[in-house]
Each structure stands twice: as C-alpha cells, then as structure tokens.
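Revision sheet: structure tokens.
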Amino acid sequence: MTQTSTRPRRLSPAEVHALLGEPEAMIKAKIQDRIDEYFRLFIAHSPFLSMATADAEGRADCSPRGDYPGFVKVLDEHTLAIPDRPGNKIADSFRNLAENDGIGLLFLIPGLRETLRVNGRAYPTDDPDVLARMQTEAKDPVLAIVVEVAEAYFHCGRALVRSRLWDPASQALAEEIPPVGEIAASQFGMDIDPMALTRSLEESYRKLY
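Predicted:
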C-alpha cells in the first residue's frame, strides 16, 4: 500500500491574526527607524548576529556572523556596516542581496536574554574608509555589507529563557552530537580519518586571527 504524504494545514493571515490577537501599544511604539544610543551600545557589545536574506524568488537564507564585540560598526544613526570575514566562499548572502536587498539582523550578547533586531536594505561595499574601521590585528576585510536601517527594536528574552541558552548546563547538549569531522566524512563520503579531519578543522579555527 502506498502512503500519501500530507502537509499540515496552511493558515491564512486572518486566521493567524485571530489566534494571536493585537500587540500591545507599547510593543508597536518600541520600533524605531534609527540606531539610538541604546541600540548603539548593544551593537558595540555584541560579538554575534544572525543575518537573514532572500533571493528574488523569496528563497531565504540565514547565516551566522561573529567577531570581537563591536565588530559591526555604526556609521551613523541610519547606517551599519558588517565586515565579511573569511568563510566558506559560497556567498549566498551576496547573491541574495544582488536580487533582493532586504535584510534582517538579530544581535546577541552572551548572558543577556534580550536581543536586538534590525531590518532594512543592504548592499556590499569595498569602500576603503569603511573597511579600515573594521581592521583587527592588522587584517582588513575585503568586503563589507552596508545596512540602511528601516527598523530597530529590542526583542524580549522569552525565547532565550525557554531555551536556557546561557545556562552552562545546556553545554552538555554538545556532547550528544558527533564530532564535526565524523559528520563531514559520512555526509561527503570522504576517505579520511574523521578524528584527523576534526583536528584539522579545530586548528583552522585557532588560526582565524
């Protein structure tokens, strides 16, 4: 007997709105169109963000970005710059921005439950003055992403509280995952010692700076 797969029921925007209700006035009022002094302070202390983009067809991608705290620079109250550090060179974000310049950022600070969300438009640049501001230990990025801010606001910490993300006990979850070298060797059919591959990857992480 052949089983027919079924997808969960799709809700309309009206149905979703009926289930969630209206946001409180204070929630709506917190959304700003610029980077104020508190957002600037948060960005200056954030070593990590998630960056969401999508192509012309709406196919979405979300990538992690991280560096020293304050690696994202506030150029002015309406503009941010994100350095493009060496990575996998797939360049999904750059391809997406060439087709659709919308962008969403989520900044985190270790130990802090609240996050900062920034939405807007973005494009790549090789402007020397911008890249010079992102120098770390005599290394300049080759490219940066300039973000023109349309919305910025703090997001409450419920998700991080529920996830226990900053609870040291949660780090034990990492022990349940096989080493990255073992995963790569299995997924890609690589004829290599998984532990040797893991050690090689760990060594590459140590050479980032």
